[in-house]
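I'll show one example:
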Amino acid sequence: MNNEVYAASMAAISSIQNITNDRIEALTKGHGMTNIGAMCAANAIATELFRGANIQLTDEDSGSLQIDQVLEKGIEAAKEAGANPANAALFAASICYFAGSNAQAGVPAGNRKIGALARMIAGADRTGVISVPTPKSNNKVSGFAAVQAIYKAMEEGKLTRIDGRKLPLGVAGGPLYGHNTLGEDIGFPEVAMNAAKVGTEAMMKAYWGAGVSASPIISAIIGTAASLEIVHPDAFVGAEYGGFFDVNSAYLAGKAACEVAGIPEKLHMRGTGEEYDSARLVGDLGVIIKDIGAPTVVGMMSFGEMLCAFQESVQIGAGFSGGPIMPPLGHMTADCIIALRALIKCETDVEKAADIIAEVKKNEWLDPEIAAVALNTISRKTEQVRRGPVTRTMILGTDGVRSAAIFRRAQKTYDALKAGKTVEDVVREIDVERKTTVETRAAAMLGAMTGHELKIEIKKLVGGARRDHPFTNSYYGFDTDADVDVTVDGKKFELKGLGQTVIPDAIFNDKQDILEVIPLAAIPVSELQLSGHSIINITVPAAVAAAMKVLEPKEASKLAEKGGKAGTAAIPGAREKAFDVAKLAVRIMDSM
């Protein structure tokens, strides 16, 4: 390796801030997304778990359990990263659950539920499901929809055949109801299932009415949580519904919600292949959400992204951090759950767990190289707040790819500049390579999913689709004018003006044939629109040009960003980052 390539490579990784255009410093102290808080909580909880802490909820006659201390550690870590009390409680409870804790264990004197314990430890206020927002997916709604629909159905006598006006004294509120035929065989199952169905359906309709796609999994969880605000949430149910101690009202609510939402009966953890009963998962998470307080929209976004740890995340509408599109770094939460489960499966062997992370990134993303770089970036940023086994696993699983990616770009730039090309040419070539990778892998992955032979070509990708403004004309990520050719089994569709013409026209004129083709174009275009999360295609060439004394750092960074105007430079910020990296590369050269 020559000195210029070495200097540029070292400069590129010197400050984690300079690898991304995303505002990752704002993620550390509560000024934006909350995923670093969630990952800090995962580090803290994993540390306690691997020290031998018991994270099971029990009904023993004790003033505290070991899980209380584990939750406290997780909440403290999340708050250290800026999470507010309700968000910190949500992260700690959810991560403990994915680490193997049960959601509830109750008797009247020691009614223990992990959501309630976390909320009280965090000092969050108690509220109802009516105040719980959904994650933002363009727009968002709230649990109000589920609560309103359930209470309307309850008022109309549609939840159960039991008329409370007829209950005799001594039966109402006592064990003859709660632990016998009327409650366990009739009342609890009927209210749990009917309310969950009504609530889940209402949530999905609310999403649609807000002009966005419904999230089946979030609708089911909130519908279940609203149901469990009414029905006895850990009640035994009749033998016809399942084994004693195996099935309770929360399970039945989760099962009913999953049926309405169209969630498959089994979900599978990425990387480890562990199988989850969807009804139990939704029931348990409903119990947590019911008690957790009022997390914010961004807190619920991090919660939803955790559910992207499941292979079926796209099908169930969990979020964006499970691929195949690489989202902004603020969305990245799924990998911490995958890493946690991998560490548990590998009995805390970080090397083996890191191999699982590496395989997930390699096989499940449109651009595996950039996906690995992005995970490495957010993991390293998290370690500035709280280190631990989860981030250590994610860094180890992506360090090799990141190092190779930076070296390859540096060497390519050096050779190209020596051959007489400009830094602008080099960045453009690297971005074209990436576009080809995205097109090819999108066609292969989507073809495998749909059973069709696909070819995808992004013919145009510029800004200013419908606004004539210097900002949108310069950064295509905000007003994208994209033309995409999609060939399906030999039939070619030319989608010109994808965002401003094709999509609105297909929706408002119900063009089903085009609506079926649009995702094949939208997915790779979205991947490129979000390129600002990892900007080594711009910063590394700029650094090499400056280190070689071909250009001054300011000019190198300006031309490098210009070269990436149809690729990596989708949003502003790359020029400033490239300038810092280029200056450092020169400083390193001067010191060698």
User: Anything to note?
Assistant: The beta strands are 104-105, 112-113, 266-268, 275-277, 454-462, 481-488, 491-496. The longest strand covers residues 454-462.
